[in-house]
Amino acid sequence: MPFLFEYIWCTMGKKLIQISFLSTILLTIQSCKKLVDVNPPSSSINSGNVYQNDATAIAAITNLYVNISKSDLISGGISSLSLFPGLSADELALYPGATINSVQYYYQNSLTSNNVNNPDYWSSFYKEISVANSAIEALTASSSLTSAVKQQLIGEAKFIRAFCYFYLVNLYGDVPLVLTTDYKVNSTLVRTSKDEVYKQIITDLKEAKNLLSINFLDASLINATNERVRPTKWAATALLARIYLYLKQWPEAETEASSIIDNNALFDTVSLANVFLKNNKEAIWQLQPVNAGWNTEDAKVFLLPASGPDQGGHPVYLSSQVINNFEIGDQRKAIWVDTVIQSGKKYYYPAKYKNANYNDPVTEYQTVFRLSEQYLIRAEARANGAGTGMSGAIADLSRIRIRAGLSIYNGSVSQEAVINAIQHERQVELFTEWGHRWFDLKRSGKIDEVMSIVTPIKGGKWDVNWQWYPISSKELLLNPNLKQNTGY
Amino acid sequence: MQIFATRKIYVVTKEFFKKHSQAVKAMKLIGIILFIASLHLSARGLTQTITISVKDAPLDNVFKLIEKQTDYVFLFEKELIAKSKKVTLNVSKPLLDVLDLCFKDQPFTYHITGKIIALAPRKEEPSKESKSSTEAQNPLIDLKGRVVNSEGEPVSGATVSIKGTTKSTVTDANGYYILTGVNENAIVIITHVQYEMKSLAINGHTSLNATLQIKMNNLDELQVIAYGTTSKRFNTGNVATVKAADIEKQPVSNPLLALQGRVPGLFITQANGFPGSGVKVRIEGLNSIDGGNDPLYVIDGVPFSSQLLPTLSKVLGSSGGNTVQVGNLNYGTYGNPLNYINPSDIESIEVLKDADATAIYGSRAANGAILITTKKGKSGEQKIEFNVQHGWGKVTRKMDMMNRRQYLDMRYEALKNDGISLSSLDQNSNYDLTVWDTTRSTDWQKELIGNTANYTDIQGKVSGGSATTFYLIGGGYHKETTTLPGDFNDQKASMHFQINSASNDQKFKLSFKGNYLVDVNQLPHTSSTDITEMAFLLPPVAPALYNSDGSINWELNNSLKSTWSYPGNPIAQLLNRYKNRTNNIVGDLTLSYELLPGLNLNSSLGYTDLQSKERVTIPLSSTAPELRQNTTRIGIYGNSSVNTFIIEPQISYHKEIWKGKFDFLVGSTIQQNSSELENLYGYGYSTDDAITDINSASLIKSEPTLNNIYKYNAGFARITCNMLDRYILNLTGRRDGSSRFGSKNQFHNFGSIGGSWIFSKEPFISQSVTWLAFGKVSVSYGTTGSDQIGDYQFLSLYNFINPGIPYQGITALQQISLTNPYLQWEETRKFHIGIDLGFFNEKLLLSGHFYRNRSSNQLLAYQLPSTTGYNSISQNFPALVQNTGLEISFTSTNISTKIFRWTSNLNLTVPQNKLLRFPGLQNSTYANTLVIGKPTSIVKKLHLMGVDPTTGVYLFTSKSDPFNPRIPDDANVIISTAPIFYGGLQNSVSYKGFQLDFLFQFVKQKGPNYFYGRLPGSPKWNQPTYLLDRWQSPGDNSSHQKYNADFTYSNSANNAGFNSDASYSDASYIRLKNLSLSWQLPDKMLKIIHLQSLRIFSQGQNLLTITNYKGLDPETLSTTSLPPLRVLTVGFQVTL
């Protein structure tokens, strides 16, 4: 805007006016446009630049892991899958004085679309998926990254996308399949059938397997490290083995699990006390704790103080169903379970992660995939006829039992008995880890049978529809195309 | 020496001495100290008819008679009056004529200054001849002079005439006049519509300057508008003014609260009863569906924040602002920036509503503007004033909660309903019956929020100055405590100054203003709801807060666990403290230079700086003992600042052509706001005492920081044309640019046209409709905009995320939001038509305004389902929101005599908000929250049909299952929380030195009630007494479902409480908002104690509330925050 003032002041030559308007002149000499142009805030980076540079691209993908690792279990981020599905199943018991309503609803299988908001796995997973989608698009288009870095990052993004969809289909059934970044499309999607979602998961994982490094990498994505906190080809393989198991594609499950088990250089079982330590050989993918002063978030919730469970931060302990299922002599009950006696009642609680002391050195990492699960996957695949068949199944099963201080499997060798034994082994091996029990009950079809007994004990009423969590009414309000699960 | 002056406050001014050298000479001779009446001037004048019938009366007796009938007072020395001759009168004539008769034969004459009639010796002994022959004998002179107002500003357009002749002229733009051929002993009369008439004796001078006082007539009161001033009489726009006189009567610490109930179209609510609380301000409804609805605040020409940056604590409550994005997080904003302006420093607050008044503020004033003008000094002798008050506060309302017996009965009944035996109860879940002493009974409302708050306010002020330079310096101290147990308080110290100076030729002028306030607010820290909620939820049988040894009672059970409901003993919660230290500076320098007559250059340079330093301390002692093992002490240290600079050069030109007055204004704005915020979290302190020092934390973590710049640039122009004081046309235009929008949409034009027709001035009306003293119709139409969406919304940004330990040693990056580079202004088209009528010599003023504001291109944080990965995206949406309303106000001077005066003021607003258009609503994310044709603030709720008489459980209207309704399918009851009407009724009564003012505020509305969905009968929660009407046995017809202890019916209770229409009910109220009673000491007493003025007063705020609201306070509509306080103060005001 041309300023009249300047002209007047110059021609008038009045010293007084010149002084009084000096600052104005100085500013108005610039163009008007400049007066309203701003640089991005110094605390931010323009999105266009993020995937053009190795360091910032890595930082953006790394945030996917930070997101999972940072949320505490009670307030319900993705890592609270170790808590809430366990409460919904027969794994965890709720302290009667607990006043946090959401915990109560999950525990008594009394979720409704109005009270599901915390934790709301739906939104947590779709947030991760959206980052993965935009990363995949931007990385694919980017030409300025180091090729090895670019390849690893695309692999990580695809792996995370598959990881999220795996949990979504197992928590909710059919879910909208979001693969692009157009919010207009994504806000009106209908549900895609589970089968289609699984197809996409498998596609993503197969690509991820090819793209991801065979070594554990540090944050440069070039150098190898002993820190097992970034997904590798093996993490993708482990998830793929689990997917095939869930889809009952036994030979494929057997093959994928074997490829990890056979990689002795990188993976091996370790003693019970070491399974959840950081970077132990059993770990396939772990999450580094990021909350300053603490080890894992799991330990903070599950480890009960001397005063026993309480209404605030320690509302849960192990259910009698789990405790009673430990065989005599099972060292897991001794090493992974601890007790506290309060008011004459003995509370058993998960003690897989042992450090909940503020400011202790970080010695434990939250483990997402570990080798023992792969043994159990292979055992189940083999028991269903894949690979070496029943003898292989019993060998895999026994390997896990021996580590727990038990004898080799010496029960009936009928397929049903062995599969039941494997299910039992999964219950006592994988308790309070990532919702395994809830999902195992569902995929084995036993959920109705088990929960119709357990839920009334917990003070609720069971309905077979409740094996699927409801979608929050907020989501239904915002996307009229989205339909609620049956029964809610 | 004795001075005879009655009533009122008189101030000696140096200005008087300078400007009236004639009088000064005379007074020096006799040594009278002269006072000028400055307050409470009445509309009556020298033309007022008075009746006097006396025979041989002493002159001072006649004076007394005149004083009784008029506002005028006489000043004279006793020695002088002793020389007077007795007078005989039997007249009923105008005052001036009567005076002339009285003084005809006296050895002295008189001067009138304001309301003072002063006696002075005659320069020459008056001739005994008749007036006409005197005129003939006296030589004729040329008289010139200048007319200014009490602030030293020239008064243009004032009529200067010679009494008893037809000779007159009009002052020019600089207040100068020349009259030729004037009798040197004549009287000059100066009149102007906005000022009191003034008459001066020439007494042989050839130069005569005059200072005029502004009229106290309601219509002619000065009104501050954007970049200028006007009066209500000639204003084309819809502007309301609240003056210092009304603000000072209210014991409030936020000037916005002084506006409640006083301004039509303005709806103000206080967030809670803590000092420094949030205040929500809405002018003429909600224009934006979910964008900002805050008005623009301008303090002495400098724009001021309408919202604070996010604070560490929620204790202060919301001012209704949008969330602020800091890094990847969205924070709510709490508190209110106007808390950092001292109400005592304010001269007037103008509320600008329609397009005519606001369009010149362009993109920022779609929601109206509030202009705050601070006090300035007046020329005159130094004047020192103190105002001291102390008071007490209590919460406005409490709720009827169950007593001990009722609570226990409810619990036992619930357990019986669920078939739970008392013997099976365990200590962890049913501690109220198993651990606590059930014979105890505590009124928790009294215990936790029932204390008396203290209120102290001390203000001092010094002002004075010469004709060319005058100043005001004020200082204040203010302290408020809370009604909570514990030492919480808010303290403010403030300073205000204003210096105005002009060159001798009045061409160059300078005005320098500054406000500084430091506030230290120490309150309990609140992360969700404050202690008020516990005052309702705690059962009456809950244990004592303290042990007998004074330590906190945790009431441990057998397993050594605290049995207070989460989060614990409320007294322990109060150990979590919040301290906010805020410094606020508002400074402005205005320079102006008169280049040519009527042509002014003007530049204002403004600066504001609001700096907050916050501390939150969470000691271990606030946590229950059993939880301490895994808890760490937390200290949070926040620093934030917002500063604005603004430069506004302007050219204005005033020209009178033929019968019209033209005013032109061209100007430009360059503005920049910088916002910064950083919060540090400290953990791992070794003791509770060390938390205030960040250095003693073993671990320090940073939260995302804010570092934003907002730039704003505009050019504007206004033309005002006033023909014959009858037809007024006002045109404004502005071109605005804001950095908040993408490069393609940074600029936009706004404009308005407004016109007024003062039809009462038309001869055909003034002659035929004599009862109509004033009549004006005004119409305006124009556009304004809103850019209230936060900074950088068009940029797609990634922020660094660091929760504490970097993942693999690197800081992660996160995209903070979905962005839209095409963002634009939200635009509001405002139409307004108003009529102002004055009856009975303008003693009754009636004003009616209709407005219709339509906001389009809505800036929505368009809500998105989670499948997009984000909660929302900012976008312009072609939705259309309409606000219409009727604003009516009556101002009436019911009685006005010399000793008794009664005025009333009633205002009423009937607003309506409506969503007119929302393309594709059914398929949008707003499908279930908005309805075409309904207000934008609706909620959709289930319908609660009642209690099923058979099962005793709530029944809802539902397509599928009346016991288990679905949301959103069954939520079809539309409830609007927008006010249906609101207003205020003010009365002022003064009798001699007494003055009584009271203001009733009334609101008709619906709001959420305390139908809370906390399961009645479950452990730990007390309930309101209306839940006593519950289902007990089959066949019962009750309004509430059966008590339930094991959560079986928690879902239906939850649906009823939170999701049904039963949770909304009438929340209308009438409130005695303000009551003020004062007594001005009579002058005789003042003289004894050597004071110029002393006023003793008592003031009250929120004294009485009449409502049927089922909850705490119908203003806050909250059951979880402290109600506003009822404050009563006593104090005095003294002028030394």
Entry keywords:
heterodimer, A: 488 residues, mainly alpha, Serine Threonine Protein Phosphatase 5, Tetratricopeptide repeat, two-stranded antiparallel sheet, two-stranded antiparallel ribbon, 22 helices, 7 strands, disordered N terminus, B: 1136 residues, mainly beta, 22-stranded antiparallel β-barrel, five-stranded mixed beta sheet
**Helical stretch count of chain A?**
22
How far apart the termini of chain A lie comes to 62 Å
Determine the most extensive contact between two protein chains: A-B, 112 and 108 residues
Category by helix and strand content of chain B: mainly beta
The level-1 CATH class of one domain in chain A:
Mainly Alpha
- Strand content bin of chain B: 35-45%
Q: Counting H and I runs of at least 4 residues, what is the number of helices of chain B?
A: 16
Percent helix of chain A? 40-55%
Largest sheet of chain A: 2 strands, antiparallel
Tell me, what's the shape of chain B?
globular
Strand content bin of chain A: 5-15%
What report would you give on this structure?
The complex is a heterodimer of chains A (488) and B (1136). With 488 residues, chain A is mainly α. Chain A has a domain at 1-69 and 120-247: Alpha Horseshoe (Serine Threonine Protein Phosphatase 5, Tetratricopeptide repeat). Chain A is built from 22 helices and 7 strands. Chain A has a two-stranded antiparallel ribbon with strand order 2-4. A two-stranded antiparallel ribbon of chain A has the order 3-7. In chain A, strand 5 (337-342) and strand 6 form a beta hairpin. The radius of gyration of chain A is 27 Å and the shape is globular. Chain B has 1136 residues and is mostly beta strands. Chain B is 10% helix and 45% strand. Chain B is built from 16 helices and 58 strands. In chain B, the strands form 15 sheets. Chain B has a 22-stranded antiparallel barrel. Chain B has a 5-stranded mixed β-sheet with strand order 17-24-25-20-21. In chain B, a hairpin with a 5-residue loop joins strand 29 and strand 30. Chain B is globular, with a radius of gyration of 34 Å. The two termini of chain B are 20 Å apart. At the A-B interface, helix 1, helix 2, helix 3, strand 1 and helix 4 of A face strand 31, strand 32, strand 33, strand 34 and strand 36 of B. Strand 1 (44-46) of chain A pairs antiparallel with strand 40 of chain B, so a sheet runs across the interface.
